[in-house]
Specification:
Layout: H1 2-30, H2 36-111, E1 120-128, E2 136-139, E3 152-154, E4 159-166, E5 171-175, E6 182-187, E7 193-197, E8 204-208, E9 220-223, E10 233-237, E11 249-255, E12 264-268, E13 277-278, E14 285-286
Antiparallel strand pairs: 1-2, 1-12, 2-5, 3-4, 3-12, 4-5, 6-7, 6-9, 7-8, 8-11, 9-10, 10-11, 13-14
Length: 296
């Protein structure tokens, strides 16, 4: 019985509220906005206005916070898109600068003429040595382009090395920094000749066996024409030295070339290295210095 009574009470209350609402609406319509309905409506508005204002004051910051989160997410996406675009533009700029640098170097190489009137072939470094202990470079020219064993390789700064292995479309350059390399040189300061050997990653080593004149820091050395075309810059003496009776003058030399920047080179194909020594087993050029002359 208890649930049924609750139902009767709820139904009675609901019906009563509906009838009351209907009566109020009827009075409000008939009174043309001036009757009891108007007064109750005005009173209800006055009663609930502060509640509505309070609810608005409470919910507005929440809504603003939610909108702010949405805006932050959108701004983050825009920022990521802008960063990606900047990275792309930066990479494109680097590519353009790299291309410009290569074109500039290629122009310098193409304009480069050896000290003697000899034909040359422009080439590009195609690969490096497998390890830092191998002082070699590979170029993209070979026998089909007139490249042969023993030919000198130069760039705009000076002597790079010598061709010591050649295939149809590629060749290997033995750098002057290689301990197996040797170059006959002339000191432009004293006009005397000597021999330079590579020492790996360090500076070159100059040996002068029969000189009687001291060499000075800053003296420029060029090829003397015995194994390479004459007059090609090789390096600059970094330490002054004097000859001692019975001993060779030995000092260090900075190479004229910058190995880290090697890209385009020229091979001197119009000058014959008649004294190039070729190893019969490997087919490679072996640099053998001239017989030293000991000062008695």
């Amino acid at each position: 019985m208890l649930p049924f009574r609750r139902f009767e009470r709820s139904t009675t209350l609901f019906v009563g509220l509906v009838m009351l609402s209907f009566l109020i609406a009827t009075f409000d319509v008939r009174s043309d906005g001036t009757g009891l309905g108007a007064m109750m409506r005005t009173g209800a508005q006055s009663l609930f206005a502060p509640v509505q204002q309070l609810a608005t004051a409470v919910t507005r910051p929440v809504a603003g916070f939610i909108d702010g989160i949405s805006n932050i997410a959108g701004l983050r996406d825009e920022l990521e898109a802008t960063r990606a675009e900047n990275d792309l533009l930066r990479q494109q700029l680097l590519d353009v600068q790299s291309t410009e640098n290569r074109l500039t170097e290629l122009e310098r190489i193409l304009d480069l003429e050896p000290p003697i009137d000899a034909a040359t072939v422009a080439a590009r470094i195609s690969s490096l040595a497998p390890t830092e202990f191998d002082h070699i470079r590979w170029i993209d020219r070979g026998t089909e382009d007139g490249i042969a064993l023993g030919q000198a390789v130069i760039d705009e700064d000076g002597l790079v090395g010598r061709i010591d292995f050649v295939a149809d479309r590629s060749a290997r350059v033995r750098l002057i920094t290689d301990p197996r390399s040797g170059v006959g040189v002339r000191d432009l300061g004293t006009n005397e000749t000597g021999w330079i050997e590579g020492r790996g990653a360090g500076p070159l080593e100059l040996k002068m066996f029969s000189t009687t004149k001291p060499v000075q820091e800053g003296d420029r050395l060029v090829t003397d024409g015995t194994r390479f075309p004459p007059g090609i810059p090789v390096g600059i003496i970094t330490e002054s030295a004097e000859a001692v009776a019975g001993f060779a003058l030995i000092t260090s030399v900075d190479p004229a070339i910058n190995l880290a920047e090697l890209d385009f080179v020229k091979v001197v194909v119009g000058w014959s290295p008649l004294d190039a020594v070729v190893d019969p087993d490997t087919g490679e050029v072996v640099d053998v210095p001239l017989a030293p002359v000991t000062v008695e």
